[in-house]
């Protein structure tokens, strides 16, 4: 990667968190202000960055346009939308749609619950594979060869006291997920949230994404969460049919 491109991408990452001044950005990437100013002017000319007042810079509209186009290009997001919106309306809980990308979960759609507890996730946000229900669904659906490779690359860092911390325990969990057709995050990613997830399939049974219901533990206990599995499974099946699945449940993701 060229040095200028690397610096420009670092600037954009820094601005994703909050508006910053030229001095702050120069300090972050460790170069003179004149270099940062040249990069900012180029990014601004293409609407990737915009000035706010005299001193601050923020992300520009071009990034949001690109993000929306990238999301719309994911056919499963469009085809699953009505089924997941219906699940959200029926349960009142937060619904996610997530896909696998480069060793992580990526949330590609989200339907907010009616409760006020704020969740970690947002569209475009990445999350670990080992402690999320959607991650377990996506890895469990892989071919044995790919699954072994993916698991070998996971850093089993601890998020909560319930987080799975070893490859062997994770493999056992994946076998269970593949057998029963859904996964559980029992407060493994965030200690106040628990989730269930199921696969959304496409032609030939290939798993395209994972759909989940996420609920704060204060609103619903574990038994109550498990009681939502049939609702989730029905919605995931509806989304799968809309995505081209014809009933071959034996399909594996590539």
Automatic annotation (TrEMBL):
GO terms for biological process: negative regulation of DNA-templated transcription. The keyword DNA-binding applies. Residues 62-245 form the IclR-ED domain. It comes from the Bacteria. The keyword tRNA processing does not apply. GO terms for molecular function: DNA binding; DNA-binding transcription factor activity. Keywords: DNA-binding, Transcription, Transcription regulation. Residues 2-61 form the HTH iclR-type domain. InterPro entries: GAF-like_dom_sf (IPR029016), HTH_MetabolicPath_Reg (IPR050707), Tscrpt_reg_IclR_C (IPR014757), Tscrpt_reg_IclR_N (IPR005471), WH-like_DNA-bd_sf (IPR036388), WH_DNA-bd_sf (IPR036390). PANTHER family: HELIX-TURN-HELIX TRANSCRIPTIONAL REGULATOR, ICLR FAMILY (PTHR30136), HTH-TYPE TRANSCRIPTIONAL REPRESSOR ALLR (PTHR30136:SF24). This is IclR family transcriptional regulator. It comes from Amycolatopsis coloradensis. The lineage of its organism: Bacteria, Bacillati, Actinomycetota, Actinomycetes, Pseudonocardiales.
